[in-house]
What we know:
By secondary structure, this protein is of the alpha/beta class.
Amino acid sequence: xxxxxxxxxxxxxxxxxxxxxxxxxxxxxxxxxxxxxxxxxxxxxxxxxxxxxxxxxxxxxxxxxxxxxxxxxxxxxxxxxxxxxxxxxxxxxxxxxxxxxxxxxxxxxxxxxxxxxxxxxxxxxxxxxxxxxxxxxxxxxxxxxxxxxxxxxxxxxxxxxxxxxxxxxxxxxxxxxxxxxxxxxxxxxxxxxxxxxxxxxxxxxxxxxxxxxxxxxxxxxxxxxxxxxxxxxxxxxxxxxxx
Length: 243
């Protein structure tokens, strides 16, 4: 709590078994501005949890929700004695019962659980809610990760579904008169927060870190200039300023 803001953190249920002493949990961050009572924000964070009936209801009134994806499916390492392992991994997606048995057993949402999350969120008809997909598995690095999120955006007709990474900076902004939420994302090239509708993403480095570059900068910036900017951010990061 400060002279300007009242910040409240509320724990939420998560269903996930871990090998550590503490289990997984989620939380909601409530941020209220004393000087502008009508300006408040709720940010939900699911943590590691499998899909479970009623889990998402905890986040119904959030302005933004961060979903942990992990892997699309239980991963198997193909060996010399199991050459077809990787090709048979998705066969059980023909059976919803097998999918839910896997989700229950492994305590991860995987693709099937994530789709249930998004279907529930879509039913809330909260068009301004940001859905931020995080914790991507190694098999979803870089462009595969971007392609996956783009497919989700098209499937749910929702441009507010975004991938997040340490290089992605998103700002929530609310009109105090209309109570309408507007989300902006930081373009690393023009160094401005721009509407999400014109956001594009670039990956850089051996771990394919994500950065937002607006569509205007993508078209107007020479390739070598943009690469130099990405290299600088990747190696040294960006200084954050608090007003």
